[in-house]
Structures are given as structure tokens and as C-alpha cells.
């Protein structure tokens, strides 16, 4: 059963959309239309005079939300039955409110996907108006959306966005959330089809209460045939359709505390079987694999357990736990703030006491300062007397220092003269040592020059011998070069003679070819003459020996065709014998 708070959220959007002037009031005619549509969708008998009866004492103009709420609670919400379509209510309120907020924006998602995000926002938002979503629920939705698309969670990007919201000190409303998703702030670079599938999966789970969905095979009750169906598991029922577009529902399995689900062995060529046993009938279903079978059995069993324990669906229970946790943390935060305020008040009290003590200390300090000033004045007078005595003593000491300085200058001059004489003695000694060292170096240099001259003479003799050897080698090389040149000239002459002889042979071959052509032509003429003579001889011989056979009459006569054939055979035999020769 949908709670009243969840039903009020889309109605609030519809009321706000009708508030054209944005002053919190709507005309009665518009409220009549809205009330009629609500009664139609919620399947409540509509009383046309109830609205006028309710507002008969208020004829001052438009009605505010505070004035419409008692009528809404008493005449509509108190009469709601469990068989209405909550999705239709959402669509009606979305149709009224969406055009004013998203019609001019270029979003990456379609209107149907924006509607699903709006429904998800209403589900996750707090039950306070104007509706807003807290940052924890926003993070929960974004994590589920990215997980449904198979994408990883970017903690840094969300923390940056969280800091921006904290700086603005605000929470998101539904239209800002649609813009956040539609502009791709957290889904940049993702295929729009993937984003659409992710939004739809989160919408099915949170808004439509779909715990699990997928294709499976179901056994019929009458014809006992197996047909593939699209199953959707909710807390209290399990519906199945022809396909996942949900256009044609084929049936519904009601779940209650008396139902159970069990695994079945393979049979009739079907594997991964399980059965849902209800009070009236049982349903045999075949999953695609063992893992899927076990997941469906576990999900259905969890729903039955929750029905027996009177619990809501898992994600609704999770939402309630998150809200309770936030309320508990908020209460703890408020208690902490109250404690901090108490501590601050106590601190202010202590601060006031400290300031009073500080004031007393300052007064005592002032009295102490007066005593200190008198003591300092006495010390100053004593210091002045002591300073005068020190100055007199300093004058006497300065006179004595001047005399000492004069004596010290005389001693210094005497000491400088002694140092100059010692320096001159050291320089003279050094000059003598340098002169002696120079003589020794000159002798060593003369010996080195003599040895170098001797070595140069020996090197010169060796170079002359090497030069003579090189001259001999060059002479030998020239002789060998001349011999090679002579051999090369002889080979070139022999090659030229061979080329001339080859040219003569080529001309002789060409002449022989010409003679062969002449002889061939003579032979052909002789062959043609011989052929003509043989034909004439054959005709003459036949006319002499068999005159009756040459006629074209009688059984022994030759036709023209037979004569031509005989002539062809004779010519082929002659050519064959000529080719053999």
C-alpha cells in the first residue's frame, strides 16, 4: 500500500503548477478539475458539490494549500482504496508540472526518462515541502544508477559537487536533479541508450517495487506446454508478460504467508526447475541456468518471509532505515549543538568572572606601578651619581691609555725596522740560492743538448738507411708494374684478335643462312614442279591403262571428290618423306 505522504508529493507538484502567479493560491475552478482527475485516477466516487460545500464560507478568491489540504484529506485521501494505479497519478501530475520546467532545456534524456527521474526523486525526497533531496539520498541514487550502467563510482567528482552544494547551502529539487542527469554531469561519455537502461532499472526497482525481473519458461496449466515469459517479482505478487515491454500481461501469481517455493529435479527435457506452491494452484518454472534459478528461489523466499513478518519491500525498508539514521544523527547533532550552547553560556560566565578578576588585577597593577615608579626614580638618581663617577674615572683612564699608545707606537716602529732588515737578509740569501741553482740548471741543460745532438745524428743515419731501402722497393715495384702492363697489353691484343675472328665467323654464319634460304626456295620450286608432273603423269597413266574407269559412268568410275582426296593423301606422303630427309 502506498503511503499518504508518497501520494501527496505528486499532488503538491500539480497544485504548484496550477499556481500561475506563484502566490501560493489556485482558483476554485482549477481545483475542481484537479479534484475530479484525482478521484478518477484514485477510483473514488466524485462528489461535485463537496468542493463548493467545503469552501462555501470562503468566497474571497483563490484557495491556498492550507485551505485545500483539509478537503483533500477528508474527501479524497481518506477514501483511497488499494487498487488504484499510482503510476497513473504520477503521469497526470507530471503532465501538469513538467512543461513549465523542462520544455526549454536541451537534455540528453527523453521526456519518459525525465519522468522516471522525477518519480525517483519523489520516492527519495524528504517528507517536507518544498520537496528536496538530501545529499545522502542523492549519493544513493547516483551510486545505483552508475552500478546499473556498469560504471565505476567517481568519489572525487561527487565530493567536488558536494562541496559546491555546501557552499550554496542548498539541496536539489526535482528539476535540478533532472537537469543534473540530463546534462550528463556524472554520466559524461556514456551512451544515451545505456543511460536510459540504467534509469529504467533504478525506476523499476525503487518506484515500481520490482525486486527481480527476467525471462523464464513457464509450464501451462491446461495444455502443459512450456512458454517463455517475462517475470517481475514484487513483494506481494509475481506478474508475467509476453515480453519485457509489459504491453500484454498473461497472469499474476499472488504471494502470501501460505506460499512456498521449492526446487524440482530435471524432467521432460527441462532443467533448472522450481515450483511456487500457492493455496489454489502451483506454478512450475524453468530458469536459464542454476545461478538464475537459485537467485529467483532466494528472492521469492525472501518476499514470503517478509510477508510473514509484516515487513515492507527491501528498498523501502532500506529507505526507512536511512531516514531513521539521518533523524538520529540530526537529533544527536541538535543535542550536541545544545550542549555546545550550554558550554558557550558557561564559558561566557567564566569569561565574565575572568574579566572581573582581570580588572582587580589591573587595579593592583596600577598601585604596584606607582610603587615601582618611585623605586625606579631612586635608582635613576643613584645611577646618575654612579655615571658621573665612571666618567671621571674614564677620563683618567683615557689619559693613561694615550701615554701607553705613544710608547706602543715607538716599540712598533722599532719592531718594523727590525722586520725590514730581516726581510732584506732573506731576500739576499734567496738571490744567492737562485743564482747557484741557475748555474746547476745551465750545466744540466748543456749535457742534455749534447746527448740530444748525438741521438739526432744516430736517427739521421737510420733514416738514410730507411730511405735507401724505400728507393730499392720503389724500383722493384716499378719493374713489376711494367711487367704487368706488358702482360695486360698482350692479353688485350689476344682479346682483339679473338673478337675479329668472332666477327668473321658471324659474317660467315649470316652468309650460310642466306645460302640456306636460297636453297630452300629452289627446293620448294622443284617440289611444286614435281607435284605438277606427278599429277599429270597419274592422269595420263590412268587414261592409258583404264580408259573406261576415267569416265563418270559405271560402278568403277572415280568422282571429283575421290580424286581430290587421293591427291591430298599423295601430297601429305610426299611432304612427310621430304621432312624426314
TrEMBL record:
<dbReference type="GO" id="GO:0030027">
    <property type="term" value="C:lamellipodium"/>
</dbReference>
<keyword id="KW-0597">Phosphoprotein</keyword>
<keyword id="KW-0966">Cell projection</keyword>
<feature type="domain" description="PH">
    <location>
        <begin position="209"/>
        <end position="305"/>
    </location>
</feature>
<keyword id="KW-0175">Coiled coil</keyword>
<dbReference type="GO" id="GO:0005886">
    <property type="term" value="C:plasma membrane"/>
</dbReference>
<keyword id="KW-0539">Nucleus</keyword>
<dbReference type="GO" id="GO:0005737">
    <property type="term" value="C:cytoplasm"/>
</dbReference>
<keyword id="KW-0238">DNA-binding</keyword>
<keyword id="KW-1003">Cell membrane</keyword>
<keyword id="KW-0472">Membrane</keyword>
<dbReference type="InterPro" id="IPR001849">
    <property type="entry name" value="PH_domain"/>
</dbReference>
<dbReference type="GO" id="GO:0003677">
    <property type="term" value="F:DNA binding"/>
</dbReference>
<dbReference type="InterPro" id="IPR011993">
    <property type="entry name" value="PH-like_dom_sf"/>
</dbReference>
<feature type="coiled-coil region">
    <location>
        <begin position="315"/>
        <end position="529"/>
    </location>
</feature>
<keyword id="KW-0963">Cytoplasm</keyword>
<dbReference type="InterPro" id="IPR057837">
    <property type="entry name" value="PH_SWAP70"/>
</dbReference>
<dbReference type="InterPro" id="IPR057836">
    <property type="entry name" value="EF-hand_SWAP70_N"/>
</dbReference>
<comment type="subunit">
    <text>The SWAP complex consists of NPM1, NCL, PARP1 and SWAP70.</text>
</comment>
<dbReference type="InterPro" id="IPR011992">
    <property type="entry name" value="EF-hand-dom_pair"/>
</dbReference>
<protein>
    <recommendedName>
        <fullName>Switch-associated protein 70</fullName>
    </recommendedName>
</protein>
<comment type="function">
    <text>Phosphatidylinositol 3,4,5-trisphosphate-dependent guanine nucleotide exchange factor (GEF) which, independently of RAS, transduces signals from tyrosine kinase receptors to RAC. It also mediates signaling of membrane ruffling. Regulates the actin cytoskeleton as an effector or adapter protein in response to agonist stimulated phosphatidylinositol (3,4)-bisphosphate production and cell protrusion.</text>
</comment>
<dbReference type="Pfam" id="PF25530">
    <property type="entry name" value="EF-hand_SWAP70_N"/>
</dbReference>
<dbReference type="GO" id="GO:0005634">
    <property type="term" value="C:nucleus"/>
</dbReference>
<dbReference type="Pfam" id="PF00169">
    <property type="entry name" value="PH"/>
</dbReference>
Amino acid at each position: 500500500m502506498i503511503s499518504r505522504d508518497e501520494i501527496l508529493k505528486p499532488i503538491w507538484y500539480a497544485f504548484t503548477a496550477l499556481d500561475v502567479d506563484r502566490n501560493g493560491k489556485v482558483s476554485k475552478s482549477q481545483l475542481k478539475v484537479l479534484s475530479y482527475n484525482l478521484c478518477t485516477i484514485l477510483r473514488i466516487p466524485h462528489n461535485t458539490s463537496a468542493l463548493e460545500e467545503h469552501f462555501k464560507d470562503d468566497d474571497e478568491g483563490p484557495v491556498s494549500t492550507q485551505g485545500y489540504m483539509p478537503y483533500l484529506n477528508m474527501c479524497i485521501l481518506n477514501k483511497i482504496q488499494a487498487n488504484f494505479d499510482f503510476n497513473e497519478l504520477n503521469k497526470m501530475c507530471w503532465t501538469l508540472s513538467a512543461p513549465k520546467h523542462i520544455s526549454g532545456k536541451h537534455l540528453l534524456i527523453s521526456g519518459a526518462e525525465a519522468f522516471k527521474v522525477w518519480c525517483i526523486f519523489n520516492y527519495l525526497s524528504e517528507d517536507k515541502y518544498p520537496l528536496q533531496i538530501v545529499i545522502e539520498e542523492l549519493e544513493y541514487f547516483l551510486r545505483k544508477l552508475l552500478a546499473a550502467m556498469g560504471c565505476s563510482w567517481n568519489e572525487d567528482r561527487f565530493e567536488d559537487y558536494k562541496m559546491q552544494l555546501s557552499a550554496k547551502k542548498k539541496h536539489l529539487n526535482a528539476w535540478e536533479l533532472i537537469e543534473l542527469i540530463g546534462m550528463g554531469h556524472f554520466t559524461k561519455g556514456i551512451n544515451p541508450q545505456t543511460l536510459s537502461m540504467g534509469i529504467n532499472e533504478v525506476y523499476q526497482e525503487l518506484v515500481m517495487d520490482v525486486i527481480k525481473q527476467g525471462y523464464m519458461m513457464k509450464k501451462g496449466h491446461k495444455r502443459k506446454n512450456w512458454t517463455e515469459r517475462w517475470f517481475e517479482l514484487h513483494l506481494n505478487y509475481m506478474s508475467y508478460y509476453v515480453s519485457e515491454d509489459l504491453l500484454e500481461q498473461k497472469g499474476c501469481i499472488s504471494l502470501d504467508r501460505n506460499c512456498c517455493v521449492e526446487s524440482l529435479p530435471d524432467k521432460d527435457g527441462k532443467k533448472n526447475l522450481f515450483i511456487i506452491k500457492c493455496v489454489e494452484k502451483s506454478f512450475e518454472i524453468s530458469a536459464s541456468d542454476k545461478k538464475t534459478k537459485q537467485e529467483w528461489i532466494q528472492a521469492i523466499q525472501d518476499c514470503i518471509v517478509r510477508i510473514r513478518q509484516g515487513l515492507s519491500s527491501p528498498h523501502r525498508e532500506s529507505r526507512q532505515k536511512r531516514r531513521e539514521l539521518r533523524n538520529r544523527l540530526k537529533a544527536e547533532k541538535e543535542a550536541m549543538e545544545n550542549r555546545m550552547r550550554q558550554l558557550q553560556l558557561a564559558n561566557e560566565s567564566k569569561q565574565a568572572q575572568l574579566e572581573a578578576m582581570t580588572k582587580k588585577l589591573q587595579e593592583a597593577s596600577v598601585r604596584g606601578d606607582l610603587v615601582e615608579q618611585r623605586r625606579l626614580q631612586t635608582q635613576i638618581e643613584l645611577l646618575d651619581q654612579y655615571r658621573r663617577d665612571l666618567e671621571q674615572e674614564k677620563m683618567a683612564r683615557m689619559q693613561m691609555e694615550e701615554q701607553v699608545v705613544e710608547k706602543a707606537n715607538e716599540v712598533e716602529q722599532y719592531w718594523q725596522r727590525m722586520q725590514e732588515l730581516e726581510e732584506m737578509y732573506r731576500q739576499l740569501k734567496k738571490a744567492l740560492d737562485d743564482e747557484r741553482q741557475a748555474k746547476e740548471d745551465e750545466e744540466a741543460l748543456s749535457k742534455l743538448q749534447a746527448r740530444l745532438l748525438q741521438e739526432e745524428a744516430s736517427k739521421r743515419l737510420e733514416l738514410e738507411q730507411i730511405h735507401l731501402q724505400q728507393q730499392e722497393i720503389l724500383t722493384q715495384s716499378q719493374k713489376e708494374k711494367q711487367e704487368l702492363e706488358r702482360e695486360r697489353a698482350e692479353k688485350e691484343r689476344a682479346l682483339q684478335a679473338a673478337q675479329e675472328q668472332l666477327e668473321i665467323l658471324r659474317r660467315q654464319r649470316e652468309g650460310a643462312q642466306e645460302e640456306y634460304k636460297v636453297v630452300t626456295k629452289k627446293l620448294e620450286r622443284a617440289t611444286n614442279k614435281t607435284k605438277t608432273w606427278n599429277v599429270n603423269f597419274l592422269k595420263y597413266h590412268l587414261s592409258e591403262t583404264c580408259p573406261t574407269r576415267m569416265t563418270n559412268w559405271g560402278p568403277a568410275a572415280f568422282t571429283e571428290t575421290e580424286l581430290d582426296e587421293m591427291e591430298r593423301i599423295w601430297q601429305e606422303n610426299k611432304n612427310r618423306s621430304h621432312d624426314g630427309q
